[in-house]
Amino acid sequence: MAVLCGNCAGKLIFNPASQKLECANCGAGYRPEDVSDINTDVHSKYYDTRVYTCSHCGAEVITSDSESSTFCVYCGNPAIVFSRVSKEYRPDGIIPFKITKQQALEKIRSRFENNPIVPKEIAADFKLENMRGIYVPYWVLNADYQEADWITGTVKRGKHSETRYYSRAGDVKFKNVPVDGSRILNDDVSMRLEPFYLEDSREFDEDYLNGFYSNTSDMDLIDLRESASKRCHKLFADEVVKSIPKNARNVKIRDSIYWADIQDDPVYMMFPVWFLTFKYKGKPYTVLVNGQTGKVTGTLPWLQKRVWGIAIATFILVIAFIVSLFFVVKGGAAQIVTFFWAAGASMLLATSTISFTVGFNGLRRILKNLKLAQSEAMFNFVKRRQS
Amino acid sequence: MDEALNSRIFMMSLMGIAFLIFTGVSFALLITYKILKKYSDIGDSSCDIKEYSRTGIHYNRMIDDAVTNEKYFLFADYGVDPYAEKKHNVPEVLLKNAERDKHIFGNRGQD
Question: Which residue from B27, B67, B111 is facing A314, i.e. has the nearest CB?
C-alpha cells in the first residue's frame, strides 16, 4: 500500500517531472525501482489496492495508497464511497506519467480558454482540484488480421457520373496494437488518446501508482477480441480506402467482414491519462489528456445562441452574395448571362453538394463525440455492453 | 399561352429559391462544422496502419471494376473465420473476468 519515506516516514508521491517518488514532508527523492524491493513482493501475481465505488454511475476507482477519493473521476459526482481493499492482478508493464497535473491543465486551458463559442463559466472549472491522474488498463497485442471489403465510388464519365464497385481483401500482421482494457472508457474515446509510445514503458511497479488512481481490466477474451477487431478494422479501413484509384470520389466502404486472431501473448499494461471532469447545466463532461504525450481530447459544450447566430449569418451572407452576383451579371452582356447560368450555377451546385455532405457528416461526428464526452453516455454505453 | 409561360416562370422561380436555400444551408453547415471542429471538438484518432504493422496490407484480392454479383463471391470466400479453430493461451486476468461474467451473464461461449 502506501510507500513511506526512509528519512521521515512521510508519504511518497510519484512526481512526473522528476520521474521519482518524492517525500511530501522532507522532499527526499527515490527511484521507484529502488523502493519497491523494500515494500512489496515483486514476485507476487497481485498487488494491494483500495477500491472506491461511485453510487451515481457505478464506476470503480482504485488507488494504491492511502489517498481518499473525493469525487468520481468518470461522472464528477461527489457521492463516492470507499468500498473495499482488493488484491488485483499485477500488470506486465506501465508507462509512467510524464506530464504533470499543472502541465496537463495548461494544455487544456490553452485549447479552450478565450474560446469564442465555449461558455465562459466553464473556464472556472479548469482547476487543479477537478483533475485526476488515472492509469488506464490497456492490452497491447499482436494479431493476425484478415478483412474483405466491398467499396463504392463515383467516377466521372463525360458529363455523367457513374457508381463503380471495388472489391478488396487482404491480411495484415499487427504488432503492439493498444486496446483499452476497461469497459467504462469508451473505445472511441481511448482511440483518440493514442498514440502511446512503448519506448517509455517500464516493468510494472506499484510505486508508480502513488498519487494517482488506477483502473483494472474488467474484460474477458470475447470483449478483448471484439475491441481488437474494431481497432484493427479502423486501421485497415483507413488504409484500404487509399488503394482506390484517385479518379473515384465519394469513396465508401459499403460492407466488410473481418477476423482478428490475437496471438498468445497480449501484454497487460497501464497507460497514464489525466481526466478533467466538470458539470455544465447539469450534464457531466470529461476532457482527457494523454499523460505521456500531452495530447488533449474532448468535446466541450458550446453557446447554442452564438453557434446558431453564426449559421444563420452564413446562410444570409451566402444568399445575399448569390443574389447580388445575379443582378451584376444580369446587367452585363448576353454571353456573360448565358455563361453564368451554364457554368456558374452548375459549379455552385457541385460545391454546395460537397459542402452539404462534409458539413452534415462532420456535425454528426461532433455531436457523437459530444455525447461521448458526457460521461453519463459512457455509463449508458457500459450498461448496453453489459445487457 | 400566357398561362403556360406563367407556370414556367413560377416553376423556374421555385427552383431558383430552392437552389438558393440549398446553397445557403450547405455553406452554413460547412462553416458551423469547421468552427465547432476548431473550437469545441479537440483530438482526432489519426493513427496510421504503419505505426502497428511493418509490412502493411498484403492484398489477396484487388478488383477495381467489379460487377455487383462479385460481392456475393467476395463474401462467400472470406465469410468463415479462418482462426476459429485455433487455441490460445489466455491470460489469467481475462479468464478470471470471464468467470465473473459467467456468474453475472451466463456462459457467453468463452474458450
Answer: B27
Q: How far is it, in rounded angstroms, from Cα B75 to Cα B50? A: 26
Residue B17 falls inside a structural domain: no
Q: Is residue B72 part of a domain?
A: yes
Residue type for position A136? V
Q: Which of A45, A172, A176 sits opposite B58 (nearest CB)?
A: A172
B91 residue type, one letter: P
Among the residue ranges A86-90, A138-142, A207-211, B102-106, the one predicted with the least confidence is: B102-106
Query: CA of B6 to nearest chain A CA: how many angstroms apart?
Result: 20
Instruction: List, in sequence order, every residue forming a beta bridge with A358; answer none if it has no partner.
Output: none
Query: Across the interface, do B44 and A177 touch by the CB < 8 Å criterion?
Result: no
DSSP letter string over A267-294? EEEEEEEEEEEEEETTEEEEEEEETTT-
Q: Do A148 and B26 touch (CB under 8 A)?
A: no
Count CA atoms closer than 13 A to A102's CA, side-chain side: 3
As beta bridge partners, residue A87 has A48
* A261 contacts B86? CB cut-off 8 A: yes
pLDDT in the model for residue A232: 92
Can you tell me the ipTM of this complex? 0.75
| Proportion of chain A above pLDDT 70, given as a percent | 83
The answer as to whether B84 is a domain residue is yes
Whether the model clears a pTM of 0.90, i.e. scores above it, the answer is no
B100 domain residue, yes or no: yes
Task: Let me know if A205 is exposed, middle or buried by CB neighbors in 10 A (0-12, 13-18, 19+).
Answer: buried
For chain B, how many structural domains are there in total?
Answer: 1
**Under 8 Å between Cβ of A322 and A348:** yes
| Chains A, B: CB pairs < 8 Å | 253
Q: Does A169 sit within 8 Å of B74, measured CB to CB?
A: yes
Alpha-carbon distance A61 to A53, whole Å? 6
Q: Return the C-alpha cell found at A91.
A: 500488470
Which residue from A minimizes the CA distance to B84?
A261
Domain that holds residue B98: 59-105
| Chain B residues within an 8 Å CB radius of A356 | 22, 25-26, 29-30
Question: Among A57-66, A274-283, A350-359, which stretch is predicted with the lowest mean pLDDT?
Answer: A57-66
Inspect the interface and report whether the beta carbons of B36 and A297 lie closer than 8 Å: no
Hey, are the CB atoms on A171 and B57 less than 8 Å from each other?
yes
